[in-house]
Design goal:
Elements: H1 2-20, H2 28-31, E1 36-39, H3 48-58, E2 65-68, E3 74-75, E4 78-79, E5 93-96, H4 100-112, E6 117-120, H5 131-146, E7 149-151, E8 157-160, E9 167-170, E10 178-185, H6 188-200, E11 205-210, H7 219-227, E12 234-239, H8 245-255, E13 261-265, H9 279-284, H10 288-296, E14 300-301, H11 305-317, E15 325-330, H12 333-345, E16 349-350, H13 355-364, E17 375-376, H14 383-395, E18 401-406, H15 414-427, E19 432-437, H16 443-452, E20 457-458, H17 461-479, H18 492-504, H19 512-521, E21 529-533, H20 540-551, E22 555-560, E23 573-577, H21 580-590, E24 601-606, E25 612-621, E26 625-632, H22 635-638, E27 643-647, H23 652-661, H24 666-669, H25 679-695, E28 699-709, E29 714-716, E30 719-723
Parallel strand pairs: 1-2, 1-5, 5-6, 6-7, 10-11, 10-12, 12-13, 13-14, 15-16, 15-17, 15-18, 18-19, 19-20
Antiparallel strand pairs: 3-4, 8-9, 8-11, 21-24, 22-23, 22-24, 25-26, 25-28, 26-27, 28-29, 28-30
């Protein structure tokens, strides 16, 4: 009977194993290895090869560890091997810490011995230039030729605190506490600081990766891995460059609805050095491009590592708020006012407490206390007052979250207040509670009490407000629809003919008539227009007057010349012409003094209806891709730079978010009796430009400026398009 039962179980296990036991992930040998070889393990204390082996043993890695050192019989009292081949047992992960000139041969030996993943600690590769670049290329060839994955080179290693793994394969001096936060740092030095910081704040780390040169594995690979990791609930990245921004956005959009994702991006893009002929091109060279990529990914950008960990502390320890209504409980008016201002600035609402809540507060608080919001308990407030007030506000249906702020007066200990806050936190597990403990007196003990009970504690009010604001944005991300990339029927063959003719003529900029034809081919409404050239028997003035009569008045007149960039500087634009005679006079005056410029003709355009000027643009950034821009026109783009960018291809949700995110958005809603503008028409224009950027890579820059936003629809008045050979 046992054998039959065993046979049945065996068959079932065999049949269902693909579902019960998922296939091994290519990164498992690195992040969840069952055995590790340290190549370059040293007997010399405080060397990298010594510290890595010491950390694996000291912090309790659960699998076998094999030191590899041809000059030692044992390292750390463990038998050493002269080579990886000599181990003669399966090895998942090889950690290489040897001089740079030996790395490639050692990697090749690891491959031959069947090692499944590598972490290369050694420096002296791409980061030093010269021979290092070639050395790194050779290393990547070895790894990719074998079909295995590699972290580094020039990194500090990897950590996994998960019970059953407990691996510290770095030369960092400490092991972070176990927890739900995964962190990847492109900088090894930053990794040291971050691990120390996480430990001091008691922020539990699930995994840590120092990516180094990212020669093989990059941030995108780890985002993909952590998306499905049950031990990781929060993802943090410190980046110096994106590598593949499009892939970053695609992967991050997949993870951010489920797991908070915070990014610190250092450095500024060098792409902005390229001279730009359009507003979009000029603005995309700023940090706006980085903001665009991170926002489109659904991630939260932190300006500093400290700010990133402020967010991580909140995400790792508290539930997301159901709404953005916050109650503030404090024992001092100043911090309460600062908190209220900071909450409003972070997209939160200082909740209006119900009359019932205020009555409850009044029954037990001193007469001098304020029972509005912020709730000011006054300086003499003790722990019971804090506990009572927080209980009251959490019972109020108008409150989604609370921040308790404490400034230590004489005779009141921060630890006592912290304990009261902890008791309330335990009583309301579904409510979001943050704390601010100001001043130095009793601060360490109070913070320790909060951290032990998973209540985020901050020293400054603004930090708590920013963290709660980030939590509210994460809640909104979870609930927003993913959106789709719409496909429009467009005349792409006509666009290609325009680009061919422009490049064949040796030009890098489309003429204005061709730019308007391109917009029409892409279904973007254009104010009715006619181009009049010198061809034919009539004079240019007479031909223009007749064209204007057919077009309709009032009309605008523009000079067309490849040499004239700023038409208004040479009197090349005249508006509101109301008759044929007015057109004739304007043309004669316009062409009288062109200087050395070649006049190809004039463009007549029916004056567009009154609307709100906006700008829609696109620029193609090296190493990034096409970026689409939206903003209000005129002074808003030229002086205030009130614009939003996103990476193409845009989803419909991206287009609407871009419109709502400009600071001057309310002008599109209608103010002081003005009508609201057609936001759907603006969004469609953005999506059509996005499609144009994908299908026609020879277009490098485009500005539709202005695109007039009307009550119904939108209409383009002017466009500038730059091109270059594929």
């Amino acid at each position: 009977m046992r054998s039959e039962k065993g046979f049945t179980v065996s068959l079932l296990t065999s049949y269902f194993s693909p579902f019960i036991f998922p296939a091994v992930h290519p990164l498992d040998p690195i992040l969840r290895p069952k055995s590790i070889a340290v190549i370059g393990a040293s007997r010399q204390p405080n060397t990298i090869g010594w510290m890595i082996l010491d950390n694996l043993l000291r912090f309790g890695f659960r699998g076998p560890v094999y030191p590899v050192n041809p000059k030692a019989a044992a390292v750390h009292s463990i038998p050493a091997y002269p080579s990886v081949r000599a181990i003669g047992k399966p090895v998942d992960l090889g950690v290489i810490a040897v001089p740079k000139e030996h790395v490639v041969p050692v990697a090749r030996e690891c491959v031959e011995a069947g090692v499944k993943g590598l972490v290369v600690i050694s420096a002296g590769f791409k980061e030093v230039g010269g021979e290092g670049v070639e050395r790194e290329r050779a290393l990547v060839e070895v790894v990719r030729g074998a079909g295995i994955r590699m972290v580094g080179p020039n990194c500090m290693g990897v950590i996994n605190t998960e019970p059953g793994v407990e691996m510290n394969a770095t030369f960092a001096p400490s092991m972070p506490p176990v927890g739900p936060v995964a962190f990847m740092s492109q900088s090894g030095a930053m990794g040291f600081s971050v691990l120390d910081y996480a430990e001091s704040l008691n922020i539990g780390i699930s995994m840590f990766v120092s990516a180094g040169n990212k020669a093989d594995l990059s941030g995108n690979d780890f985002i993909s891995y952590w998306r499905d990791d049950p031990h990781t609930r929060v993802v943090l990245l410190y980046l110096e460059n994106f590598g593949n921004p499009g892939r970053f956005v695609e992967l991050a959009r997949d993870i951010t609805p489920h797991k908070p994702f915070c990014v610190v991006k250092s450095g500024r893009t060098g792409a902005g050095i390229r001279a730009a002929a359009s507003h979009t091109g000029a603005l995309a060279g700023t940090e706006l491009a980085t903001d665009a990529i991170i926002a489109q990914a659904g991630a939260i950008r932190a300006q500093t590592v400290e700010e990133m960990f402020d967010y991580a502390m909140a995400f790792a320890n508290q539930p997301l708020p159901e709404g953005n209504r916050v109650a503030i409980v404090t024992n001092a008016g100043g911090p309460g006012i600062i908190l209220a201002d900071a909450c409003e600035a972070s997209g939160l609402v200082v909740a209006a407490l119900s009359p019932e809540t205020q009555l409850l507060l009044r029954t037990k608080l001193p007469e001098e206390a304020s029972v509005g919001n912020p709730v000011d308990l006054i300086a003499s407030a003790m722990a019971p007052s804090y506990e009572y007030a927080l209980n009251c506000v959490f019972q109020d249906p108008n409150v989604d979250a609370a921040i308790a702020a404490f400034v230590p007066p004489l005779g009141v200990q921060a630890k006592d207040i912290a304990e009261a806050i902890v008791r309330v936190n335990a009583r309301y597990p579904n409510k979001t509670l943050l704390a601010v403990l100001m001043g130095r007196q009793g601060l360490p003990a109070g913070m320790a009490e909060l951290q032990k009970a998973n209540v985020p504690g901050y020293i400054f009010p603004e930090s708590a407000a920013r963290a709660l604001g980030a939590m509210w944005r994460q809640r909104q991300r979870r609930e927003r629809p993913p959106g789709t990339v719409r496909a429009f029927k467009t005349e792409d063959a006509a666009v290609e003919r325009i680009l061919d003719a422009t490049l064949a003529a040796g030009r890098s900029k489309l003429s204005e008539p061709d730019a308007l034809r391109l917009l029409e081919a892409y279904g973007i409404p254009v104010a009715p227009w006619r181009f009049v050239s010198h061809e034919g028997q009539q004079s240019l003035a007479t031909a223009a007057a007749e064209a204007a009569a057919k077009l309709g008045f009032p009309a605008a007149l523009k000079i067309v010349s490849p040499e004239i960039v700023h038409k208004t500087d040479v009197g090349g634009v005249v508006l509101n012409l109301s008759s044929q005679d007015a057109v004739r006079r304007a043309v004669r005056e316009m062409v009288k003094n062109p200087g050395n410029a070649t006049i190809e003709g004039v463009l007549l355009q029916r004056m567009a209806p009154a609307g709100r000027e906006t700008i829609v643009g696109m620029t193609r950034m090296p190493r990034v891709g096409p970026l689409v821009m939206f903003g209000l026109g005129g002074v808003y783009v030229e002086v205030l730079r009130d614009v939003v960018l996103r990476l193409s291809p845009l989803r419909d949700t991206d287009a609407h978010e871009m419109i709502h995110e400009v600071k001057s958005y309310r002008l599109l809603e209608g103010v002081r009796g003005e009508p609201a503008r057609d936001l759907n028409a603006l969004a469609e224009a953005l999506l059509r430009v996005s499609q144009l950027s994908q299908r026609h890579p020879r277009i490098t820059e485009l500005d539709i400026n202005p695109l007039l936003a009307l009550e119904r629809g939108a209409v383009a008045v002017d466009a500038r398009v730059n091109v270059e050979p594929a």
